[in-house]
Amino acid sequence: MSNTITLTRKERDCLVLIGDNAASDFPLRLVEVANSLGIKSPTALNLVKRLVSKGMLLREHGMLVLSAEGKEEYGRIIESHRVIETMMTRNGVDLADACRLSCNLDFIIDETAVNSIFNQLGKPKSCPHGKKIEVI
Ligand SMILES: [Zn+2]
Question: What is the per-residue pLDDT across 66-115, written as a single tens digit (0 to 9) for each?
C-alpha cells in the first residue's frame, strides 16, 4: 500500500510517542506530549492539530489516541525503523547511532525499499534491541 500523507519529523515523533503509549491504560494528554517531546504546550497543540487534520489522531475528552490510519502509519514507521537499524548495525554502525539515525529515515522511506532491505537481510525476526519485526 502506498502512503501519500507525509509527516514532518516532529509529527513522526508525536505519532510514535502516542503509538508507543497505546498499550498503557492511560492515554496521553497534551501536556504529557509537550513534556515528552520537550516542546511548549502551544507548539504541541499545533502538532496535535496537524495530526488530527491528517487523519492520524483523535482527541477524545482531552486524551490523544491514534485513529485506524494513525495505527497503520505507526506500524509502518516501527517496522521501517527496526529494519533500517538492523541493516546499519549489521554493517558496523553503533546501535545507539543506528537507532538515532533510523528515526530520520523510518517515516520517509517507502515500503518497497524497506521490504527489499528486509529480504536482503534474510528476513530478521527482531531488531538489534530484540524487538519483534512485524512484516506488514
Ligand atoms: Zn531503535
Answer: 999 999 999 999 999 999 999 999 999 999 999 999 999 999 999 999 99
Closest listed residue to residue 117, CA positions, set 106, 129, 130: 106
**Spacing, Cα 33 to ligand 1 middle (Å):** 20
Ligand 1 center to residue 61 CA distance, Å?
Answer: 31
Q: Say if CB 59 and CB 67 are below 8 A apart.
A: no
DSSP H or E stretch at residue 95: helix 95-105
- For position 64, what pLDDT does the model report? 95
Task: Tell me how far the alpha carbon of residue 95 lies from the centroid of ligand 1, in angstroms.
Answer: 8
